[in-house]
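Lab meeting minutes (informal)
Scribe: AK
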Amino acid sequence: MLQHHPDKRVCNVRSMPAMLITIDCEGDNLWSRPRIVTTHNARYLFWFQSLCERYGMRPTYLVNYEMALSEVFQEFAAGVLHREAAEIGMHLHAWNSPPFSPLTPDDHYYQPYLFEYPSSVMRAKVGYLTKFLEDTFQTRVVSHRAGRWGLDHRYARMLVDHGFNVDCSVTPHVSWRNTPGDPRREGGPDFTDFHHQAYFLDLDDISRAGSSPLLEVPISIVDCPERRCAGVRKAASLCDLALRVLNHFCPPVCWLQPNGRNRRDLFYVIEHAKQDRRDYLQLTLHSSELMPGCSPAFPTRLSIARLQDDLEAVFATIQGHWLPATLREYHRRVITTRVAMPMAAAPFGSGVPGR
């Protein structure tokens, strides 16, 4: 376990904290690993955006390849960009993003992480999708989230090379080692001991704050010690299925990610962030979770109605206490305040990394 220690490169903006909303805009129910990917859920972004605007929220829509091809999404994006009501960023699903380069016997089934591909393929995919999004939406794309949270140091360097200045792939307290991509490899990244505050990445070791221009904005996730049930988890770890069941019904962490059954967890994260004086909250969802029957969490219209209720409750609580911002706007705020500039000549602010 890494030690808690002050790190002046970890951002700690001492003003009204920011409220960030990030939406992975992608195909329908990718949890089912479909061979033909559809994007019917794009139609359901309109109600979500309307709700956000009613409460003054400013989402960042992180868009993958198939969603960028959707005419419905293109219409939606044109509207929010024209009103300056949201931001368009990038979300890269390596198995379904050009240039295509098969990695496993069935990439649609295994959904490999981008960092499992050769560096030349990684670079080509990042470059292609960046240009495709910017050409399609006629806007500069500077914010990013890795598909399946799969970020490593090579990927981060490529983002810097292509002009990105914000990433939000880190899930503190969470390891994806048991979530495989390429079955010959060791699974996803382990973010267990990463910072929980925003920090400029060290491009040699993305778990550390450094001097790169890429600001990492981790998802708002809070450790829940009372749920750890150490003895039970140790026994369950002998059986992968048992551990999955335990994590489903008694997760050891709370995310600011509505699932229709976790309103208490959402407010636990908000309250913890207040007490911890965090500089931002980041609520995240998938676009497919806005459509009934398009995700495991929200199978019916009633479940979507519960999601709407939970979102309204969160947004009402946030109003007046957290300042809504897109990822681009949050990055600009960090730079402007000079609290945590990653430049040798600039003054550093104080901060304590959450490990």
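Next up, CB showed the second protein from the same session:
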Amino acid sequence: MLYGKKAVSFYGLYDRRDKKSRNMYNEVDFNKIDLSLAAPQEEPERQYYFIAKCRETVQELKQEAGRELTFHVETFGCQMNARDSEKLTAILKEIGYQESEHEVCDLVLYNTCTVRENANLKVYGHLGHLKKEKKKNPYMLIGLCGCMMQESHVVEKLKESYRFVDFVFGTHNVFKLAEILYHRLASGGQIIDIWDSTEQIVENLPSERKFPFKTGVNIMYGCNNFCSYCIVPYVRGRERSREPKEILREIEALVADGVVEVMLLGQNVNSYGKNLAEPMSFAELLKEVEQVEGLKRIRFMTSHPKDLSDELIAVMAGSKKICKHFHLPLQCGCSRLLEDMNRHYTKEQYLELVAKLRRAMPDLSITTDIIVGYPGETEEDFLETIDVVKQVQYDSAYTFIYSRRSGTPAASREQVPQEVVKERFNRLLAVVNEISKERTARLTGSVQEVLVESIDDHDDTMVTGRLENSIQVHFKGSKEDIGQFRKVYLREAKGFYYFGEVVQ
């Protein structure tokens, strides 16, 4: 293809024979892309082309408006969505929009979640407000993407009741933002581009970090577990692992740009690598990541208990960089319900995994996810969950009331009355909070390493950072501390955080 052959020379891209750790996007000169040619078919060159096309159109709109055009990306849901939003933000900046902290601007993009019903309701509430604002601003565009958009009934509702929404896309084609936006700018009509699935992973697109010194790195996409309560496999698709060389290339580039901590992200990182042409275990990937010079901390999320290997525990125990913090979702302490949830482990097997982790790493912090009110849950089942919480002694737990999701097996089962669920939820929360306070307090009086993240929200003479176990610490400091590691004496535990003092 003519365009593809010319692209390497006039994009200024690296020679594809050169396998050094370089990001192709960083070498792109968008001003040199010949827009008189047809769009290339290969990715990411196709998206570079549409970024350039959008830049041209947005520049014309700015001249017409007599001002800069602004955008705002609002993220709902998990860290996978947050990472996607960093990419969306960078693409919009490259196109020529300026970022705004406010939703009332020229382009609003909601990156949605659909794990629980209230997430959907929040989005509809935001849209109702924006409809009025859009009437005041002829340049305003509204976009929706993410997990919620993968549900067909949501898309139908948008077509019928939210015609003022300009463009809609899902989880499988997040990388196509520039192309979708260009078609909306060119046509003036509503653009809906939802893919049912994909095997494609597009590398080397723009990305912007929330923090210059830490970030998430996707190592895989999708999920194969099909837990009976969960919509994620239906909206995120089947598991697709990134090639290890691409992950390492990205991390090396990030470290060269000042990153000292990475969070490896996947719906189930423990099953990483199973679908690669040359399979690699997650433990093997971690060993490779640890070799990256300049990287200080490695985190990962989320782990499924059914895939937690002895190899992973051994690698983690012997590592100097992997944080001694393990997020191990329980969901429920009743073996009968765990089987119905399609979780593939029992209460006893889960407790044995925790025992293995603690034998290998006595100082390990363990956090979890727990659902209250799963269909068919009895008082005895609920007390089984309380029993696990007391035995494990979690550092913290994300507790959720079961949310019925259309299309999942659990949605058709007999639901627990809401008044019963809420009462149980409050009882669980009280137990979790009490244990969390005790676990936090155990480090009082010790000196720990803290990665400083920001100026304190309530006192600008103080800074806020995180321990290896992710607990926050507040202490006297300045903006010069941000992004640095500090040795801090933990003077006082305040339930779920510490006040401390820097040790000279």
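CB comment: The CA atoms of residues 163 and 190 lie 7 Å apart.
No objections, moving on.
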